[in-house]
Structure formats: structure tokens, C-alpha cells
Amino acid sequence: MNEEVSMNLEEVEIHGFKIMNECGVSTTTGFLPDKLLEVFPSNANIGLNEFLRWLDWSASMLPNLIASKNVKELVDGMPKANFWFEDIPKVVLNRIALISTMIAHAYFRECCPYESIGKSVEDESVYSLPRNLAISIFYSTKLLGMRPALNYGLYTLFNFKKKNPSEELRADNSEMLVSFTGSISENWFEAIHHNVESVFSPSIHHLAMACILSYQDNLDEEAIADCLEKALDPNIEVIDVLKLMRKNCDPQEYYNKIRLFYTMPQNVVFEGVKELEDRPQRNLGQTGGQSPFEHFRKAVLGIRHNDSYYPLMRQCMHLGFRKFVEWADNKSRIREVVLNAKGNKRLLGAYNALVLQVGQWEEEHNRLVLEFIKSQSGGESHGTGTTPLPWLDKIHEQTMSHIIFG
Q1: Beta partners for residue 404, in sequence order
Q2: Which of 6, 102, 120, 367 has minimal Cβ neighbours within 10 Å of its Cβ?
């Protein structure tokens, strides 16, 4: 991205939209796509058509196939991918990757019924993913720029529809396209995340503008403060939305019947994928910590974590979103500007208010972890992203250490 360092405010505003567009971030819906496929379109390629129809049917039947323990039989009958993945539009690739990875996670849940995610982390055995499913996952996710497993981007960002298309996206107006259980609890768990992403979206451009302003030669502290203040309300509101998780998601059902689908064995050989040469692949589980909105606002604010796992989660994002986060991470000088201008109380207050909201988000998330995991557990040691649970407290402490005292 070629960037000027002598832009006026109007040019900064336009440049912010330009960067969002280049990275596939919607100016209206943020990290949520403007449009999603509920079923695959018909295709002139007969082999591709057969493959897509099989995926559509499998997606519609997945909860029943899981309940009847017929996922292995489903995978054994999967048609070959007799087409070039490179010729497929991204909107179709996203649905292929979503359904294929969900089937894979359901397949391993049936074949390796771990009692907890901690047990899956401890298991160093090598497992194989059948050829046709392995090829579908590897090439679709490769073209989307992500690791070959289910992730937050596929399971959450690219897996919803509005119940009423004419109304705004809220938790009670969101429905999953593909589900493991078909339960109210699973749908509500995801609907809350859809609502969070929707609420956060108006702040993205304000934060992008603040980032651009921070590295201009003609530094305008008041303009930066203005952008940060405008981004604050959505960052407050997302916490209120997160608190609604308890309304329709049962903690016991989430713990025992839903979250264990979010992980897979630690060592998986992708049969038939020549590029991998039968090398076992280690993939993270699906987790909200992979959300680009969390990484983006921390990157803009200069919140850093001395941790190898945190940046690893970015490899699970869509390529465009990862580039957007990395752009903010590399370019933002906001924290440096605030530290050098402590006398500007407005700028200091706007910055600290946002850092505080990030910290309060993490506090609420950790309360939910206590209620939905630790209180249900007979000894669960890890989160769905395979991180040890105490890691969450460490991340929160590091976030709050970024408050700047005047």
C-alpha cells in the first residue's frame, strides 16, 4: 500500500476507505460480508456441480448425521474434486471451506471423542483426513489465505443470514447457515458474535483514520482525538451485546455438546495433498480470539502482547483481514503520539477510554469463560483455540498495562 504522509483530513478519510476496500473490509458491515451464499449456484462444470450439491446436502443434514454417528460414512462417500479450485469465485470458496472444515471437525469428533480440549492437546497421535475432504479443505483455505481448519472467519463471519432481511443484524435476527447441533444454544452463541461484529463496524473507519493521521508529517492531535472519540461508543456497546450471551445459550449445553467441535487432533495428515508431503499439520481450534476486530483495534492502539500465540491466530484469518490488521500494526503511531503529548488531556482521555473498553471486554469474556467452561469442567485446562485458560488472564493484564497515566 503506497501511502502519503502529507494528507489533509479529506484525503485521510478517502484513504481510510481505500485501504478498507483493498483489504475486503466493508464500509457498511465491517468484517462481516455484505452478501453470503445460502446455497451454491448452478455451474456448467458437471464435476463441480456434483461436488457443490453434495456439500449443500451435507450442510443441511450435518446435525442429523452427527447425532446418528454417520459422519464417517458421509466422508467415505464424498465425491472427488474434479475441477480447478483456482477458477472458483471467492464467495463460493468461502462456502466450500466452511462446509468442508465443519465436516472435518465433526468427522474427528466422531472418530476421536475427546472428553475435553485439554485431552486433545495432550494426544500426540497422528491421524489422517481422508483424501477428498483433505483436498477440498487444503485448496479452498489456501486460496483464502488461511490455515486448513475451521476458524472464526469461516464459522462466524461467513456463516449467517438475517431472519428478516429488511431489519438490522441483531442477535435475535441472526441465524447460522451451517450448524453442528442445530440447537438454540449454538445459534445464539454465534448470533451474539454476529451482533458484536455488526455493532463494532462503524468504528473501523474512525480507527483507520486515526491510524493514518498518526503518521502524517503535519500531525493533528485534535483530529486524532476526534476519531478516537467517535470510535468509542461502538466499543462500549459490544460489551453490552456480549453480556446477552447468557440469555439463550445454556452453559452446560455449550460445554458438553458444542465447544468440542471447535477443535481437532493436534497432528493430522492431509491425504492426497502433495504439497504437504504427508507431514502432520497442527492447527488451532476455532475461537473468538481469531476475530479481526479484536486484533485490529489493539493494533491501532499499540496494544502489544509478548506472546507467540497471539500473532499465530492471525494466520487463521482471511488474507485481506490479516493484511488490514498488519497494516494497522505496522503503521499506527497513536500510542507514541499520546505518550509525546500527555499535556493534551483530550487526546489522552480518548486513548485511555478505548484501552479501558478493550480491557472491560476481556473482563466480561473471562467471566463468561468462568461460567461456561471452568464452572462446568471436571478439569478442562484449555480454551477452544487450544490455549491454556490462564493465558486469558495474562492477556488482560497486558492490555490494562497500556493505560497511560498523565
Answers
A1: none
A2: 6
Taking a C-beta distance cutoff of 8 angstroms, is the pair 172, 31 a contact? no
Q: Which of 198, 193, 190 is nearest to 169 (CA)?
A: 198
Question: Rounded to a whole number, what is the largest CA-CA distance in the chain?
Answer: 68
Percent of the chain with pLDDT over 70: 99
3-state secondary structure 69-128: CCHHHHHHCCCCCCCCHHHCCHHHHHHHHHHHHHHHHHHHHHHCCCCCHHHHHHCCCEEE
DSSP-derived pairing of the beta strands 126-129 and 267-270: parallel
In terms of Cβ atoms closer than 10 Å to its own Cβ (0-12, 13-18, 19+), residue 350 is: buried
Given CA atoms 230, 232, 237, 238 in this order, what sign does their dihedral have?
A: positive
Residue 377 near residue 112 (C-beta atoms within 8 A): no
Please state, as a whole number, how many other Cβ atoms lie within 10 Å of the Cβ of residue 68: 10
Residue of 252, 248, 196, 241 whose CA lies nearest to 372: 252
Predicted confidence band at 257 (pLDDT cuts at 50, 70, 90)?
very high
Number of structural domains found in the chain? 1
Cell of 179: 450448524
Residue 114 in domain:
yes
Q: Is residue 376 part of a domain?
A: yes
Nearest by Cα to 197 from 144, 158, 143: 158
Convert the pLDDT of each residue in 124-134 to its tens digit: 999 999 999 99
Three-state SS at 269: strand
Q: Cell 456448467 appears where?
A: 44
Give the rounded distance of the alpha carbon of 128 from its chain centre. Answer: 26
Q: Which domain holds residue 238?
A: 9-400
Q: What is the CATH number of the domain that holds 244?
A: 1.20.58.480
CA–CA dist 80, 36 (Å, integer): 25
Q: For residues 300 and 338, give the distance between their C-alpha atoms in angstroms, rounded to a whole number.
A: 12
Whether the model pTM is above 0.85: yes
DSSP 313-345: GGGGS-HHHHHHHHHHHHH--HHHHHHTTTT-H
* Cα distance between residue 15 and residue 21, in whole Å: 10
Nearest CA to 169 out of 361, 35, 322 is that of 35
| Helix or strand holding residue 129 (H, E) | strand 126-129
The label of the residue with cell 485446562 reads: 381
Residue 191, in any domain of the structure: yes
> Does residue 118 surpass a pLDDT of 90?
no
- Cα–Cα distance, 85 to 133 (Å, whole number): 13
Q: Is residue 1 part of a domain?
A: no
